[in-house]
Specification:
The chain has 3 helices and 8 strands. By secondary structure, the chain is α/β, with parallel strands linked by helices. β6 and β7 form a beta hairpin. The chain starts with a strand and ends with a strand.
Length: 130
């Protein structure tokens, strides 16, 4: 068994697609209309185009919005992405205007940082010490 798909709830799918592709570097995998305004919109890592997909899911359901907003209020990331070097990625993304809520922090064998994805979520990046 392996993870095939996971999702983040977003306020605006077009805005999320721009952020996740143009700033984070993911690539669009699927973009299928669902209903009048929503889409089945997924992105993947360019390093693993057949790997786990991230669904940029509309936050239409009230429970999803409450859950997501409460996580942000409490400073808890909704998702975590692996990177090779947190400090380098922090510098790259900061230079592109990404707002971090937690600068790189070394915690034993792991370094993490947390940023705002501009679509309603906090996302953590992490790397194992080398």
């Amino acid at each position: 068994m392996k993870i095939h798909l996971t999702s983040v709830f977003v306020d605006d799918q077009a805005k999320a697609l721009r952020f996740y592709t143009e700033l984070l570097g993911f690539v669009k995998k699927h973009d299928v209309p669902v209903g009048e305004k929503d889409r089945w919109l997924t992105v993947v890592s360019p390093d693993e185009p057949d790997g786990t997909e991230l669904l940029l899911e509309p936050v239409g359901h009230p429970a999803a919005k409450t859950y997501r907003d409460t996580l942000v209020k409490d400073g808890i990331p909704l998702a975590q992405f692996a990177v090779d070097d947190v400090k380098a990625e922090y510098e790259r993304l900061s230079g592109l205007g990404v707002r971090f809520t937690q600068e790189p922090l070394e915690m034993g064998p792991v370094t993490t940082a947390v940023f705002d994805d501009t679509c309603g979520n906090l996302i953590q990046i992490a790397a194992q010490a080398q």
